[in-house]
Task: structure prediction
Amino acid sequence: MSITDLIYLSQKSLRSNILRSILTSLGIIIGVSSVITMISIGSGARIEVEQQIERFGSNNLIVRSQSSSNRGVSMGANSVNTLTLKDMEALKEELPAIKAIAPRVSLSTQIVANGNNWLATVTGTTNDYFDLGNWKFENGRSFEEEELASGSRVAIIGKTVQKNLFDTDSPIDEVIRINKVPFTVIGLLDAKGGTAWADLDDTVIVPLKTAKQRLVAKKFPGDQIRSMTINVRSSDLLFKTEKDVDTVMRKLHKISANGNPDFVIRNYAQFLNARQESSRVMSILLATVAGISLIVGGIGIMNIMLVTVTERTKEIGVCMSVGAKKRDILLQFLIESLMISLIGGLIGIALGLGVIFGVSEYFKWKMSLDYMSIVLSFVFSSSIGIIFGFYPARKAANLNPIDALRYE
Amino acid sequence: MGDNKLLALDNIDLSINEGDFVSIMGSSGSGKSTLMNIIGCLDVPSSGEYHFRDNNVSTLNSNKLAELRNKDIGFVFQNFNLLPRLNAQENVVLPLLYSGKNLKERNQLAIEALESVGLKDRVHHRPNQLSGGQQQRVSIARAIAGSPKLILADEPTGALDSKTGLEIMKILNDLNAKGITIVLVTHEDDIANYGSRIIKMKDGKILEDKKNVNN
Result:
């Protein structure tokens, strides 16, 4: 008996009870869709973390000033800039694990060029900012030492700013006005794309000194800065350096070890770890659901196949009387359970894809469809069909033809 | 009780020649069904031997038995035993599936078999769309599709009215005339009378075995 004949007979009997066949495969449907979703969440998280590192650089700590609450009275966010360039120099000196520090002052303001208006974040910083933040130049150059030292009116702009202000792709040497102060564009940054919360390319970068003198003199008087990005030599040192920075900063700002600090240290690795951890928890949860429903689904298949064998005992007897061998009967029932589980697998894959696209669409969760997961689901569901279908099929094949024929 | 075993068949010595039309009669419990199962290679005797053509059936395993049933034996049952999901042609094709004939050949054979029982225009009907007599004719077509040497008919008219029953008996008679050996189990005298030899059984023993003078 050829395999196509077996499949033909199997689909006949499955179709004669289509609702039951689909209900039977429900466990497989849920299991397989969970497997696909789980794998997609996992690989999506991995890719997102890789992208974040790509965007923000790795091994970075960000220290930002924070209004300290003084005797229970909050001084208000952004009202005080407690970080200074002196802090930065001191940290560099005290902690050899620090490779570089990029200071930052910033404001959000109107940029005018070419008769166009655009609101962007303007950052005043040094050249380290580009290395630490993984910024690449599409066009032009970074600042020259002389420009940084003298406070030249030069600016490097992000892709979003360029698109909104200029018709041309090469805005180099064009003039933009930031707070009415004219700046010459010397560089254009490569696009990084947006995150869920900000468009990284909506940026204008000018030398720190220029910004402090001409743009934010009131907001950041003296050597005050908004934040600094600290680059640590290796990832092993990241968490230790975070603690060291805290200790040094407390000493500099004369804050006791358990006092409220007037700064906050952001460890980006922490965020990435949390992100990975939460997707790992989600994956474990889904893996559990998948595992349980695949097993329950398998038992469901076995159960229904046992019922089917009993129901069709007489039919089995008839087949045996006209010359079906044990092997023929075994194969026919195995193929039936295999088909149930494969149909469940297919529906499960479709459902899983739906969930993946739905979730990534509505929750903006990064999900990546791994084609291996589809292969894996096929393997899963077919092995379940075979494993759990085997016992009923063998029971059918071992029926005595006379008893089977006599069964009513 | 104790050591006494219940013997379904006891001391049976029977030979059936090729081309015979044998009727086996007996009340229920007489052992005629068991005898029929052994003749039909559905079962093997617990002791003694049964030879079918060149085979000592008593020594065959279940696969060989299945092969014998498939190639040389056709069954006709009282309740037709057609598969309800399959149409007439597919039911007739069933034994040919197991013998591994190719699609074209087996469809051809099935159509021929259905034609020979007068169901040419019913090939795509399912059993529940056919009358009892038609269903029995489908099952005869299934029995003869693989050109068997022997047809075993177990009360083939039992579920039919007498007129339809006679039609079925006529078909069996015609098959016998073409050289196919027929073994018929029945408890009706006028049906048994179609046979050229009538065997009467009781309590697992052959009570009487004689040529049918009426035939």
Observations:
- The two ends of chain B are 44 Å apart (CA to CA).
- The longest strand of chain B covers residues 205-211.
